[in-house]
Amino acid sequence: MAERATFRVKTGLAEMLKGGVIMDVVDADQARIAEDAGACAVMALERVPADIRRDGGVARMSNPAMIKGIQEAVTIPVMAKARIGHFAEAQVLQSLEVDYIDESEVLTPADEANHIDKLSFEVPFVCGATNLGEALRRIGEGAAMIRSKGEAGTGNIVEAVRHMREITDGIRELAGMRREQLAGAAKDHRAPLDVVQEVAEQGRLPVPLFCAGGIATPADAALMMQLGAEGNFVGSGIFKSEDPERRARAIVEATTHFQDPGRVAQASMALGEAMPGLEIEALAAEGGLLQGRGA
Amino acid sequence: MLALQGDFEAHRRMLQGLGAEASEVRAPHQLEGLDGLVIPGGESTTISKGMARDGLDEAIVGFHASGRPILGSCAGMIVCDREHLGLGDYLCRRNAFGRQLASFEQDLQVEGLGPDPLRAVFIRAPWVERHGPGVEVLAEVERHPVAVRDGNLLAVAFHSELTDDSRLHALFMALASTPASSASRPGVRGEGADGLATLGEES
Q1: Helices (H), chain A
Q2: Domain residue spans in chain B?
Q3: B8-183 CATH choice from 3.30.420.40, 3.40.50.880, 2.40.50.140, 3.40.50.410
């Protein structure tokens, strides 16, 4: 008997994306450029985070016609974003047969208190996290893949570094605990005890852990892989740069050869300008941070 | 393990669990001294482009020609077919079962692995669309070949490395410890290594 949508089948696709780069694209042409550059998947959305940030207003799920156009243009997996808590958008994305749904803080949250009940869906979900507790709560809700939130659309890696360190330090701490300490840890992390126990036993998350939010250069990609990311999402960093094709190839190369600084150096040459970067403190002062959404 | 992209870590756990030394291959010189190569699941376009970029395509063809065995899983099955590296005399249909929603797991009888079925996980999996007469079909789903052997190439459309069952990897390791001449020549299978003895005998 064939069984679909099991936990193993849902996390299985994320397992296959490891060591790869998932690129934000806004149309079929960009999707083809991403695929040609070696992206292992694309994220279909109407505006990259840098533009969402610039334009303001409410950011919603993308137009289904645009998602379909991208699905027809490439053979690699196509992901799409739903607003936090907006399960009707997720239902629409599932009916379009997207390969993964990103319940994303980059879009304007639809529910201030609740995330989507991801276990009730057949399509797998990826969710962002700024620390271990957030990651474990999302896994408890059924997320089959976790990514750092970073601070999308800034070209500034500092927040992704913080989130990845918070998550991996938290895992090491759990793994060093005695069993009777885990209930207290679950309370501190505001996370389900069974997920906490599993992480403590395995010494890793039960789902793949990727980096997202702020990658702009090949060296950024190599940094995050060395800090424990199992793959990278790149949003504005590619198509907001001067030469997206070359930068996309270079970030793919640096994600594979992250342990070889010579290869990262080679990949970083003649790329043109990176996307312009934003200071996190200035953004925070304006109340413009996205990462606090849906904790 | 070819470590350009994909689930090579899961293959490492399988191989190490069986007592093998597993190393990551990201450059041609890292193939030296290996007894066999696993090409993991991942995105076949990403892995193909990476092999071309890093000169690994020719190096892997040479590695295969030297008689050493290769295990290709999912994307690894695709990149070994006639349209890619040409290591096996078969052609794959990519994403043959459909998108992720159609991905599934099931018990699968695989020839050469004994009477118990293997839990096979199919993720946006391919199947073999056509194959030459020298290709042995080891398992089928909906009458499409999903596990084949062509000489010293073992290619499967599914992932058993995501389960606890290491029999497929044990079979691959048996190929790796068999002298190259007998592993690659049809007709002399069944000599020597344990895993091979049952190949072709079950029906």
Answers
A1: 7-17, 28-37, 49-55, 64-73, 87-95, 132-141, 158-175, 182-189, 193-202, 218-226, 236-239, 244-256, 261-267, 280-285
A2: 8-183
A3: 3.40.50.880
What tens digit of pLDDT does each residue of A42-66 get? 999 989 999 998 898 899 999 999 9
Rounded to two decimals, the ipTM of the complex is 0.95
According to DSSP H, which parts of A59-157 are helical? 64-73, 87-95, 132-141
**Contact across the interface for A12 and B121, Cβ inside 8 Å:** yes
Residue B44 tokens read as: 């076949």
Alpha helices in chain B (DSSP H): 8-17, 44-53, 56-65, 75-79, 167-176, 180-184, 194-197
Any CB–CB contact under 8 A between A4 and chain B?
A: yes
Whole-Å CA distances, B9 to A170, B16, B39, B156, B170: 22, 10, 12, 18, 17
Q: Give the separation between CA B152 and CA B71, rounded to whole angstroms.
A: 9
Residue A134 has pLDDT above 50, yes or no: yes
The mean predicted confidence, pLDDT, of chain B is 90
Return the residue of B nearest to A99 by Cα.
B100
Decide: A217 and A165 in contact? Cβ < 8 Å. no
Q: Is the pLDDT of residue B193 over 50?
A: no
Cβ atoms within 10 Å of B144's Cβ, excluding its own? 16
Q: Which residues of A touch B121 (CB under 8 A)?
A: 8-9, 12
Mutate to test the interface with A, among B78, B95, B123 (most CBs of A within 10 A): B123
Distance from CA of A292 to the nearest CA of B (A): 30
Longest dimension (CA), chain B: 43
How confident is the model over A168-187, as pLDDT tens digits? 999 999 999 999 999 999 99
Amino acid at B86: G
Which of A125, A123, A10, A9 lies closest to B105, judged by CA?
A: A9
Nearest CB among B94, B99, B162 relative to A15 is that of B162
Q: Are B167 and B118 in contact (CB under 8 A)?
A: yes
pTM listed for this prediction: 0.94
Which residues from chain A sit within 8 angstroms of residue B8, using beta carbons?
A: 18-19
What is the four-CA torsion angle of A127, A235, B78, B3, rounded to 10 degrees?
Answer: -80
Distance CA A163, CA B146 (A): 41
Phi and psi at residue A7, to the nearest 5°: -55, -40
Task: Give, as one character, the DSSP assignment of residue A269.
Answer: T
d(CA B91, CA A50): 43
* Residue A233, min C-alpha distance to chain B (Å): 14
